[in-house]
Amino acid sequence: MHELMRELQGRWSGMFADLAAGADLPPARRLRAEGMMEAAVLLGVASEEQLVSAMDRCYRDAFGARIAEHFGDDWREYHPFPQIPAMGVRAPVYPSTAD
């Protein structure tokens, strides 16, 4: 396996594990990984489909479900390559007043 792919898989795994645990994900972390994904395609290390498939495996390891199961089968329309669908879980909001 190419070193760039190993690095990407480590970054995806870390990001998704943090999100699954309820932690925040700094945008810079996601953006750097997206840049690496684009570089992998430009260098011929992997195709877009290979990268998305590998990312989906890392997502499934962290969340127990495929990306499409959480974001819908059309998730790539909303997150075109090289965007990573990595968002924190929305915090619960409780009203502070009776009205």
Write the layout of secondary structure elements.
Elements: H1 3-20, H2 27-42, H3 48-63, H4 67-71, H5 75-78
Helix pairs in contact: 1-2, 1-3
Question: How would you characterize this protein structure?
Answer:
It is a single chain. With 99 residues, the chain is mostly helical. Helices cover 60% and strands 0% of the residues. It has five helices and no strands. It has helices at residues 3-20, 27-42, 48-63, 67-71, 75-78. Helix 1 (3-20) runs parallel beside helix 3. The longest helix is centred in the first third of the chain and has 18 residues, at 3-20. The relative contact order is 0.18.
Briefly, what is this?
Helices cover 60% and strands 0% of the residues.
Identify the notable features of this structure and list them briefly.
99 residues; mainly alpha; 5 helices; elongated
Biggest sheet features? none
Mean pLDDT rating = 92
Structural shape = elongated
Question: What is the rounded Rg?
Answer: 15 Å
For the secondary structure, the number of strands is 0
Query: Could you state the order of secondary-structure elements as H and E?
Result: HHHHH
Strand content: under 5%
The N- to C-terminal Cα distance equals: 58 Å
Structural class: mainly alpha
Q: Give the quaternary arrangement of the chains.
A: single chain
* Helical percentage: 55-70%
How many helices? The count is 5
Which segments are poorly predicted (pLDDT under 50) over 5 or more consecutive residues? none
